[in-house]
Structures are given as C-alpha cells and as structure tokens.
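User: Show me an example of a complex going from sequences to structure tokens.

Assistant: Sure. Here are the input components:
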Amino acid sequence: MFAHTDDQQVFERTAVRFMESHYPVERVRELARAETAFEPERWREAADLGWTTLLVPEGAGGGSISGNGLADLLIVTSLFGQHAAPGPLISTNVVATALGRWGSAEHHDGPLAAILSGSSVAVWGHRSACTATPSGDGITITGRVRALECATVASHVLVIATEPAGRSHFLIPLDAPGITTTALAGVDLTRRFWDLALDHVVVTASAHVGEPGWADVHDDELLDVAAVLALGEMAGALHRAFGMTLDWVTNRYSFGRPLSSYQEIKHRMADLRTQVEAAEAVAARAASAVGTGTGTGTGTGTGTGNDGRAWASAGMAHVGRHGPEAIQDCIQLHGGIGVTNACDLHLFLRRVALDANLYGSPAEFARRLGAIVVAQGDAA
Amino acid sequence: MTDTTAAVIPVDEFAARARTWLAGHMPPADPSAGHFFFTATSSRTDDHDLARIDTCRRLQRLLYDGGFAGICVPTEYGGQGLTPAHQQAFNRELRGYDHPIEIQASTFIPCMAVLLEFGTEEQKLRHIPPMLKGEAIWAQLLSEPSGGSDAAGALTTAVRDGEEWILNGSKIWTTGAWYSDWALCLARTNWDVEKHRGLTVFALPVQTPGLEIHRIELLNGSVEFCQEFLTDVVVDDSDRIGDVDGGWTVMTRWLHHERTISGGSQYVTSVGRSHNAPNDGAVLAAVARDLDTVDDPRTLELIGEARALTLMGDALVSSVTRKLQTGELPFHAAAMSRLFSGTAMTRRAALALELTGGDGVVWEPGNDRQAGVGLSWLVRQAACIGGGTTEMARNVIAERLLGMPRETRHDDGAFREVSKGPRAS
C-alpha cells in the first residue's frame, strides 16, 4: 500500500510475511484474551527487521530505507492496522525520534541503543502533568501521566514536566522508586494502557531530553510523527475492513439476489472505497511532508517541505472522524453478524477508534489545522 | 514540424525559465477569478464576466507567445511537445499569478483533448492553434433536457444530406456557451441500433444559423449556463469528429477528460485546487475575520475542517492520478476523485454557513464575502450534479472498480423502441 521504491517493496514483503505468520486473526484473538498482549521475543525479531530504527539518524544508530524513514515506517504501521497487532509501535518510535533528535550521547548509548536492538521499549507520555523541582544534585519529579501504552513492560517513559526554566522533556526509567502504575481498560484489545503516578521520583539533570523549556515545541513535532503513524494504522485497518465487507456483500444473498446487486449497497460501498483511498492518500502525503520537512507550515498543497503539520492535522481531522464511521458502516452492511464478537470487524473498529482519539480528537486536530490557516492569513 | 533531434529541456531548467518569464510577463493573481457560478454574487454582471473572459483570452495569448501554452501538445499544433512533468512544474511556478483559469474547461478539457485523440490532421491543424492562442473558446454541447446523466440517450439528431449533416434538437448545461466560439456536439445518427452505437460527434461554430442560445438562471442568480436550440443547423462532414455512429468511442474519452477537471490532466494550466477551492479554510478565515469571530474555538474547528477537506481532495486526486499513470488503478477510478470533490465542496459550503450563522443569510448589499457564503450554499448541490452526478460516480466506482453487479438495463434494444417517458415528445 505504501511501498514505492524497490527497497521498500522488499521491506514490505518481509514485513507481510512476519505479520502473516505471527499475527493471523486467531492469534490476535488469543492475545486479546491473554494477560499481556505484548510479546518481548516477537518485538526483538521485529526490531531486527528495522522497525524501531527508521526514524533515528544514522549517526545515532538508526537509518531509513528510502531517505524518508517515516514513509518507510508507514508500511509497517499500515500492516499493524491490517492485523490489529499488539506492541507499542507508535509510542516507541516517537520516543526514538525524540532521542535521535534531541537526546544526549548518554541517551544514544543507553536507552536508544536498547530501543534500536529491540531489547527494550520506551513509551511516550503524551498526556503528562508533572512538575520538576531541583533537589540537591538531582531533580525531583511528581505528577501523573495518563494513558501510557505498555507501561509495565517498557524500560523508560518520556514525560513533560514543568520546571523553573519552563516545560521540559525528561526520560525517566520506569523502575525508578516512586513510580506506580494502574492498569486501564479500553476499546483496543491488544494495545493496552496504564496510568502512571510519579511521587518524588529523583532523576539527574542528564534525564533532560532537549533544551529545558522546549518541550511543547518538541512535543508538537512528536505529535506530527504520531499522527502520521496513526494514519498509517487507520488506513491499514480500513483497508482490511473494506475488503471483508466487499467479500460479504458479494457472497451474502437476500431475497434471491446478492447484497451487492442493490444500488443502495453499491453506493455505500463506493463511498467506503473512496474514504479508504483518501485515508491512504493523506497518510502517504503526510508522511512525505512530515518526514522531509520541519513539521510546521500551512499545507499549501506542495508537499515539498514545511507543510507537514497541516497535512498530518488534516488527515487526523478527516480520517479520525470518517474512519471510525466507515467501519461502523461496514458493520451495518454485515447486519446482525457484524455486531457479534465472532465477526472480526470489531478488531479493526477498535484499532481505528483508538488511533482516531488517543492523541487528540478529530475536533482538536481540526482546530490545530484551523489555527495554522488563520496564522497564514494573518501573515499575508 | 517536430525536430526529433532536439533534446527535451530538463524539467528543472524549464521551471527556471518559467519562473523568470512569469515574473516579467504575468500579472499577479486576481482573487476574484476562478470561482465560476459557485460563488456567483449578486453584484456580478455580464459586462464583468465578459471582461474577465477577455482577460483570459489575453492571458492565454501571453502564455502562447511566451512558449508556455499547450505544454503537452505536439509542436505541429502550436504546443510545446513536452511532458506532463513539465506542465506540473509550470503549474507550480504559476502560483501567485493570474492565469486563464475560466477557459481551461471546456476548451482544453475535454474539447482539445478529444480533438487530439480523434481529430483528423486537418482538424487538429485548424482548431488547436487558435485554442492555444486564446482566439477560440470551446463549449460542450452534450447534456440534453431529457436526461443529464444518460449521455448516450441523446435525442438531438443529425441527418446526412450529401456532404453535410442537418442537426435538430436541444442541448443544456453548457458552460459559457454565450461567449464561446466553437463547440463539440453529440448527436444521434442512427435510431435503429442500440443507443451507444448510433451516435456521432461533430464540431461546429457557436455563431451559426439555426443555433439559438438561451441563458439559464440558477437558483443563486448565476446566468453562466446555457440551453441551446438547434433548428436545421448545417454542419459539414469535414467537421465530423471520429466515425459515423462511432460517437460513443469518442464519448468515453470525452467524459474521461471532463472528469479530470477535478485534477490530474496534462492539458490544464492551473495552480491546482487548493488555491481556488470555493469555501476553503482560507475563505472561511477571511469571513471570520470580518465577523470578528476568528479566535473562537468552534470557528477554528470549522476553518480546520474546511481546509482538511481541501487537502484530502488534493491528496486523493494526486494519488489516484499517479495510480492511473502506473496502471495500479483502472481509469474508472477517476470517479473517486469526482465523488470526493463534489461531496467535499457541498460540505465546505455547509461549514461556511455554520460559521457565519445569521450573517450568511442576511447581509448588507455589496458584502460579497457574506453573499458568497449564502449564495454558494444555496447552489451547493451543483457540485454533486455538474460534470456527472455523484450518483453516477458511485455507480462507476461500484460497477467498474469494485466489480459489483451492473444495474439492469431497459435500453438495450433499438433506441427508437426505448421508452422515453410519458412527457417525451
């Protein structure tokens, strides 16, 4: 779906084989019932395929396939969507991006190297509310992080904490004294979340990621990356759900004729097919713009540099709203079987609902884009 | 004549040449240009529209003299003989400059594109250079009052009389026929065969005896569309495009080129949809600034949704276009671009009205920005009707792209026997 160059196609074939052998739907259903859906051994194998290195510069131990690692990684996230696969793929790659861009040499040699090898995962605290106060030689961090993925298996969390210099990013080891986790329930069965409480967690100044006071600027860039990866997952899940539905309406008969012969059903399928194509198109366009630009700008449609934020926000505003609706419509077209657990559609509905809301609602992404448009007009 | 030994100018070099030339020759973009009927306001007059069309002719001539008209048209017909990549590069450079946006459709697509594919050498040499010089604006005499979507059900009749054809009937929904010079016309030449097999395409001058043009007033006051009445209009056989009764072969490409107005045509000189999209987020932001509501979170959301729809359309059209070129998708997939463009445009009109509220339904005379919101909302369904309805696009997607069963036909016998309905004459 997202592989264009020869190298990307080789990468995609390997990824497809991996996903088909390890995450057929029966296995995903087993994992959905299991106590932990995350499989450390699989994750190491996935890291060997390069799935955690693509957003990290070569100098920091990473490397892309095509020159745009985000476009490369879209191939993988779309497969995660098609399989409703477990694993903090988005979250870990976001942290890898942060460490690659703003991390110290110490970060590169330690936690980042472990992320790249797949021996550990780190997760993004995209909803942090913490304060950091200097204490002796170190810094004491207290606060909460909402909805943290894979908190019990990750080695580190990237949080934002407010300190005298402003809001800053910190990379905190999750086994530090003072951290407690509370398991959450949620719509997705294989991507799971925890709340994190930090009670006077002591870190050294070297836990800073990036210049103090820059966290909001940097988190906005990380949000662009997360949005692109979420768009890839949604495009993959939509593709799968649409394929199932086309198969259903073709083979299901009522009143002596296939469902697919009713014009009402045909028109609904045409709408769905168009939404699937649009989701795929905007994911690729956003990956191209965010992956090659600075992640800010106006979305002038050129796709050649600095309009990544507009494209990523446009995708999340639109696909975030219409993607979940599209899969609900797939369920409607399936009739009664569609609302049962036996029908696989809900696995993809859950994944799309998660991706469409976890990092901000469609309305929030629309406002983010609206603010860009207004700022562009003010500047003109 | 084509010089086969000349190397094609590299795209980068061509773009650089275009940049320099545009800076020296083209006027800056006219913000009021390019919205057609969709945002027609009460203050627009025929004189205003005619002046704009004259400007388009002049701008087209400038492009021609500068060596930038018909970039993908062979040099023997007055074009540049270059590639779609050159046209795309030129369109990128064109941003910020005025250009003849209003005559791209129907002159270059579908009319010029159809002539290039089906015209004889004489026809191409005669008609294409005047198009590229801005001397000839073309219209499409296609839809008929008896049914807009069913192009193959044309009732307008052409009867052969020696080396001439006599045309009778009526055409409708012709964009700008009242200021056009020439037209392509679809007519029935055989009533005794299946409907697709009895059609023929002709070219004819719009100012010709027996061709009467009436203006249609749309519900928002726009009078850009026309209806034509043909009474014993004489067309020479040398103006026939394609084979006698071979009109549907021409039509399938005609309709394809018409659909590429949503984007992706190599014959269109335009900066692309984002910059001309009616009720795009930028338009909404300007209205909100007037109303002093631009900082309201709900306003930002509406502006964002409108821009998102514009960008989604852009992404979809360019992705589909690329896949058509690589063969990943069949050409019927262009119907997805048409469907999305139509529904996005109607939704943006709704967003604009929601943003303005009372100020979009009542405004001071002369406030074109607010009038534009209310009037474009009133006529918004035109975006899902003109150029092939979205219902037809959905049929094409379902049947041709997804392979779902075709609708049962009731018109597959001799066309003479096909029911035309109780009101048909």
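The lines above are the inputs; the final block is the predicted structure for all two components together. Chain B has a mean pLDDT of 92.
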